Amino acid sequence: MxxxxxxxxxGGTAAALLASSRTAHAAGPTASGAPGKxxxxxIELYAVRKAMKADPxxxxxxxxxxxxxxxxxxxxxxxxxxxxxxxxxTLKRLGLKAPSCHMSPETIxxxxxxxxxxxxxxxxxxxxxxxxxxxxxxxIDAWKLWANRFNAAGEDARREGIWLxxxxxxxxxxxxxxxxxxxxFAKEIDPKAVRLQLDCGNMLMGGGDPxxxxxxxxxLIHSFHIKNVVADKSADTELxxxxxxxxAFLAAIPDLNKKPCxxxxxxxxxxxxxxxxxxxxxxxxxx
Length: 287
Description:
This protein has helices spanning 10-27, 49-54, 56-66, 84-94, 112-121, 140-159, 181-188, 200-205, 210-217, 246-251, 271-283; strands spanning 42-44, 70-74, 97-102, 126-129, 163-167, 194-199, 221-226, 228-229, 236-237, 261-263. It is of the alpha/beta class. It has one domain (74-283): TIM Barrel, CATH 3.20.20.150. Helix 3 packs parallel to helix 11 (271-283) and helix 6 (140-159) crosses helix 7. The protein starts with 9 loop residues before the first helix and ends with a helix.
């Protein structure tokens, strides 16, 4: 599966921050006086892929012990050699949920009905494609073609109570034939059938502004990868060490706790130590 292929104006950013402030005020502590909190914290298993490859059950136990409530599975990694029953049994035993998975784009083209049934077995609400084939690196028309395919597959998914969604990579923010691919895709998809998962770190590394994108596409975005970046936006880093205001970003998301949010630091020296540091950071945030 293709994966990790690797500005907004000041005025646009200011407008997005103002909008996010208003949203946070409206949806945050005004009703009860209680601060906003991220109630369920998930982790994308790509963030602990080496540990998962070595021992998936032990790694899931460690993730639960840290305090994570949700995981995003990787069908694209064949769930690290575990059968669906083994995965489902382990999740149930540990009290973990898997609201979504990442899968290859070709999944929607062949055996889609079987994949939807599989999603139900694993308790998925969302089936998410993180990247598209190489043809989309060369042609905006290819993006439009895939958007149409998503719309058709998404209609099938909705009949089964599941959502099909798409996740952004850094290169999806790079201009192609005079247009920004992720913006084209967002315009072409049917919001009744397809949703987006916004990876804030990937958007920053691609030169975009997650706050601005969220302000313009709130109705489409229903899942998030919480990721921070170093100062030059060349790589991700621990959430507490990055330059992006994660707190303001989370406060800007309407109905935040109804939308799966996953930590994903892609290249830490110690995967589980980073997973704990990132969990502790999010657990300590309030707004």
